[in-house]
Amino acid sequence: MPRILIVEDEAIIRSALKRLLERHGYAVSEAGSTEEASQLELTGFDLIISDLRLPGEPGTALIAAASPAPVLIMTSYASMRSAVESLKQGAVDYVAKPFDHAELLETVERILHKQSMQQSPPPDITDEGGGRHTMIGNCLAMQQVYTRIRKTAPADVTVLVLGESGTGKELVARAIHQQSKRAKAPLISVNCAAIPETLIESELFGHEKGAFTGASAARTGLVEAADGGTLFLDEIGELPLDAQARLLRVLQEGEIRKIGSVETRHVNVRLIAATHRDLRALSKTGEFRLDLYYRLNVMQIELPPLREREDDVLEIADILLDKACKRHERAGLRLSRAARQDLRDYPWPGNVRELENALERGVILAEGHLIHPDDLGLAPITNRPVASPANTHTAQNGIDNPADDNEDDLSLEDYFQHFVLEHQDQMSETELAQKLGISRKNLWERRQRLGIPRKKTARRPG
């Protein structure tokens, strides 16, 4: 239960606000001044709501004292000057009195939600070789992933991890397992796409001697091997329907039956499944059981593609480059400024796996102490020339003839292109997308379609 401190000298307002927050599940403490509030352990609160004008020191005096706890300022003087001044001093937000109850509750919920995102550091993971490392990335999307991992791991429920190939779904499975109550038990990882369809049931559920041609001895399946621990099924969308039916029984009844056996065995397994495919769409075509989909989709964690993790790309690249240099004994290699910019601009259809391969190539091919763009071996970012605001749709760009387009669509595309070209030197991709009212993915897709490359000015030193 989030803890909130109200600092307000007017007892009527203070008690009314306390009742409102308590009715919505918050634990609330009170103080009548900054001096009184300072007697409390301020950093132990999840949020401090303070009036700006108080006896003695103003409410903004609590901002530094309470850090890192956020301070929401209330003011009866709804002038921009007092609000902006509070924000400049570090207040997380402000509300003007008299405030609307619904708006106040929404503000409180938003602040606490954002705070919980920031309180989820990247989880540590022990890899198969016993090495311990931390998941990389601090963008908002990854913060949400870390929060889901932290909340989901101890719950011992089935988890469905979604994301494109190469986004790190197995890392998420390892993090969940290692933060769960089953951490000391085995984690068994299976790539369903890597096992022939004729063998997948035997691999997962085992078989008795003589169950089929070539079964010269009994075999324990991987589901049974994971008993007491976690079973990670990657690319579960590739699982044949017969194996899906057997897996459903494991989830429903906790039972397995080896191929060729009449006996069932009980197993206690936590299942984490991953896929880059739309299982619900596959269920409509009969390729995936709908009842199994519902069993799998208890808790969902969606990994963002690398192209939507702009601020993480170079951080990930530096860590992967260091590992590649150690493997190939090429100490001291670093990326040139142009190579870093190419890494930042590239859309990475293969995600982190493709990034790792590019850096591996760079380390092997680099002649001197710098890795240049040619060493990375990346495909051209675009084979289309830079578009100009006056000539958006050309045959060279691979865009349909403007005569074939609707006039309204043309004007919207012209506006989009003009806005991006005019503002991209001052705005990040996230800010551009927000101003245009679209997602970053949509912004990237429109850039590709219209032949508008991202700005080439490096944002970080090489």
Gist of the model:
This protein is of the alpha/beta class and 462 residues long.
Shape: globular
Termini Cα gap? 45 Å
Main sheet properties: 5 strands, parallel
Q: What's the total count of β strands?
A: 16
Give me the side-by-side strand order of the main sheet.
2-1-3-4-5
Portion in beta strands? 5-15%
Unreliably modeled segments: 383-411, 457-462
Q: If helices are DSSP runs of H or I spanning 4 or more residues, what is the number of helices?
A: 19
- How would you state the average pLDDT, rounded? 83
User: What structural class results from the helix and strand content?
Assistant: alpha/beta
Helix content: 40-55%
Output the radius of gyration: 28 Å
Protein model, in words:
- The chain is of the alpha/beta class and 462 residues long.
- It contains 19 helices and 16 strands.
- It has helices at 11-23, 34-38, 61-66, 80-88, 101-118, 140-152, 169-178, 197-205, 222-225, 241-253, 279-284, 290-296, 310-327, 337-345, 351-365, 373-376, 407-423, 429-436, 440-450; strands at 3-7, 27-31, 47-51, 71-75, 93-96, 124-126, 132-134, 159-162, 187-191, 230-234, 255-256, 265-266, 270-275, 299-302, 334-335, 370-371.
- The strands form 5 sheets. Strands 2-1-3-4-5 form a 5-stranded parallel sheet, sandwiched between helices. A 5-stranded parallel sheet has the order 9-10-13-8-14.
- Helix 3 links the parallel strand 3 (47-51) and strand 4 (71-75).
- Helix 13 (310-327) crosses helix 15 (351-365).
- The protein starts with a strand and ends in a 12-residue tail after the last helix.
- The relative contact order is 0.07.
